[in-house]
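JOB MANIFEST
job_type = single_chain_structure
chain_count = 1
residues = 454
[input]
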Amino acid sequence: MQQTVGADPYFPANGDPRYRVHRYELALDYRPGPNRLSGTARLNAIAGRSPLAEFQLNLADFRIGRVRVDGRTTHYTHRGGRLRIRPGKAIRTGAAFTVEIHWSGNPKPVRSPFGGIGWEELEDGALVASQPVGAPSWYPCNDRPADKASYQIAVTTPSAYSVVAGGRLLTRTAKASTTTWVYEQAAPTSSYLVGLSIGKYQTVLLGDPGLGGVPQAGHIPARLLTEFSRDFARQPAMMTLFEELFGPYPFGEYAVVVTEEELDVPVEAQGLSLFGANHVDGGRGFERLVAHELAHQWFGNSVSIADWRHIWLNEGFAKYAEWLWSERSGGRSAQALAGLAHRGLAGKPQDLRLADPGRKLMFDDRLYERGGLVLHAVRCALGDEAFFRMLRGWVTVHRGGAVTTAAFEAHVARYAAEPLDALFASWVHETALPALPVAGVAIPDRPSYPPSGG
């Protein structure tokens, strides 16, 4: 379910709402030593409600080799991260068109209010973590979260390296000293959620998916195998639980990459999550983050946001999934964790409005915690049976689409016996912290994960 939205108010220079892309085909060649990237992109796109005399893509400071629209060389300008393209003839309303671009250079993070984001050259390899505006650091894209497309990504790199991307590995072809890896992500994907990692990894399977199960793999430095095996041992049980609570896993497979280097926080991509070596301690010290990143596959990736004002719909839901996992795996209950979060928020400034936090506060810790508390308040109001029906319905109705806070409020109202306008007004649209929601919210008569004795 795709919504039509305008320019993103937090990042108006990113994305062009006058058209949408429905498929990217990227062919990349990367040499880690000199950090040299060259690529060819083919975009299949559809014009919007007005003819396109010109349009723009986002791409960082690379050298452009050629630009073609529908096979014809065309005029373009490339300044300040914007590639403005003017076809020889305006593209008519609603028409399909193709764009081909060749670019090359030394990829690096793009500047943002949160520091450098996007392509990161590592000591021995590379990593892409693009939230929110880092995708143009390595490929030309219509960089707005609501413009979701399928992807095919082919990466050629020296054979000593593994390439991991979100989606299904179609082929791996070795030629002399290089290997080409081709991945297909058929599900609609936001540009910032296209993940990529190039490094020297050992690949392990997590659990046995069985018939119809979700294949799960870990790609890790060999030295961390023992610690990883313990820290991620319960991820298959998380997958089972989340499929029960949220509905079927929305993609074909799920991969986890652990880099040799440290990351401030793990980062989700579509069908893929990226962790730093500092998140693997052999003691399950970061298990809540394993749950958080997995939950993003439903909330944020399959059900995406229409623009960045609504980021709490990604982070609050993933935070609440952490609490649900704790509750169901023998840890503290969601009510206890909600109490901890509420006490923490009570001692902090009351100037965050979830419905529109502003660019400066969109990754504030308070947004995550308060977002989790919204879900808990809704759960207390609806009761467990209606709450989990509501969550599964939300994921089902909006699978592959883009949503807003207003859409969520309207969705919840369908499951409520009485209006919840006051709940959403106080928790989502106002800044003062409401009282801690309390109800008998333990999930009744369901097995723990892992089962006793497992």
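[summary]
The chain has a mean pLDDT of 94.
The longest strand covers residues 19-31.
exit_status = 0
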